[in-house]
Write a structure and sequence with these properties.
With about 150 residues, the chain is an alpha+beta fold. It is built from 4 helices and 5 strands. Strands 1-2-3-4-5 form a 5-stranded mixed beta sheet.
Length: about 150
């Protein structure tokens, strides 16, 4: 299957929102004590701003949006840290009908190229601890643990 990564378009919002809701449902299933149903997962104004910032991408397969990628470019600078510029993956999701077909790898290959083009220092993301499939995927791709969020309920 040929996968084309490109900037998202304004008229794709509803498709993007549908994919985001699939992920939201997984989060609710894993942690109903934290996550709840919301009629809107990605507010339209956030999507529109991400389009302006050229920070929202889609994976297209045979003319269909099959996955979404929302990034934030972060400049990290403090007296106690090395100054770095990173690409932070805010959201990445693949439509359930297209999972396991290489779209995640295509997104990360795209991000590695973008990182090099922009001269950034790294790519970072967070993953739900319950999402074992995603954690394995990220690890297999080469991501390593940077920190661990813990909670006490």
């Amino acid at each position: 299957m040929k996968i084309h990564i490109r900037n998202a378009k304004p008229d794709e919002y509803h498709t993007v929102e549908t994919i985001m809701k699939q992920v939201q449902k997984m989060h609710i299933d894993w942690r109903p004590d934290i996550y709840k149903y919301s009629g809107t997962v990605l507010p339209l104004e956030v999507y529109e701003q991400a389009l302006k910032d050229e920070a929202f991408f889609v994976a297209e397969c045979a003319g269909t949006v099959a996955g979404i990628l929302f990034i934030v470019c972060r400049h990290i600078e403090s007296p106690s840290q090395v100054t770095r510029d990173i690409i932070f993956v805010d959201s990445m999701a693949v439509d359930e009908k297209y999972r396991g077909k290489g779209i995640g790898h295509a997104f990360f290959d795209f991000l590695k190229d973008l990182k090099c083009q922009k001269g950034y220092d790294g790519i970072e993301l967070q993953v739900n601890a319950q999402n074992t499939a995603a954690r394995k995927f990220y690890s297999d791709y080469g991501f390593t643990d940077k920190s661990v969020n813990m909670e006490l309920l």
